[in-house]
Amino acid sequence: MHFSLLEKMGASVLISAWLIYGANFVGNLLVPIAPHVGGAVHAAATKEEAPAEPAAAAGPEKSIGELLATADPAAGEKVFGKCKACHVAESGAGHKVGPNLWGVVGRPTASSPGFSYSAAMTGKGGEWTYEHLNTFLTSPKEYAPGNKMTFAGLKSADDRAAVIAYLRTRSDSPKPLP
């Protein structure tokens, strides 16, 4: 039985499509796809529970100074694990996708030597005060619209305070608490 060139090409395309579909199907079974949250890519999905009561009913929000007074740097180091995909906070270490955060508390914004910042960050000016870090970590895109950071932010004020307390320890001369 002889097949024409057109029949052979059609069969090849059909078999290739089946192989691609099958490989994709098996791959999805073996490795589940994690959802994208706020444009950031996460290695594993995390389940966030809704607050029991609306935030307005919880009372006035504490200032960053009050939160830092009770913040645990060790807990902040654990929360900072979310940041380690793009950042390092080690003296003398190079940059990753994001800048090295060693000595970031009190440092001028967009000032880590050798890192190429977005225009949004270089135009921001000022320095990384505790208040600015808290606002930035709440929502990087709202703090400096147009910046390159894809992280959605830390919604928990306690988590933000813990990370800031941890970053405060990552310095040759930690800044005093407010």
Automatic annotation (TrEMBL):
Span of domain Cytochrome c: 71-171
Keywords from the UniProt entry: Cell membrane, Electron transport, Heme, Iron, Membrane, Metal-binding, Photosynthesis, Transmembrane, Transmembrane helix, Transport
GO biological process: photosynthesis
GO annotation, cellular component aspect: plasma membrane
GO molecular function, one term: electron transfer activity
Keyword Methyltransferase set for record: no
InterPro entries: Cyt_c-like_dom, Cyt_c-like_dom_sf, Cyt_c_1A/1B
Membrane topology: Single-pass membrane protein
Highest taxon in the source lineage: Bacteria
Location relative to the cell: Cell membrane
UniProt feature coiled coil, ranges: none
Keyword Cytoplasm: no
Function: Cytochrome c2 is found mainly in purple, non-sulfur, photosynthetic bacteria where it functions as the electron donor to the oxidized bacteriochlorophyll in the photophosphorylation pathway. However, it may also have a role in the respiratory chain and is found in some non-photosynthetic bacteria.
Protein name: Cytochrome c domain-containing protein
Species name: Candidatus Defluviicoccus seviourii
Highest classification ranks of the organism: Bacteria, Pseudomonadati, Pseudomonadota, Alphaproteobacteria, Rhodospirillales
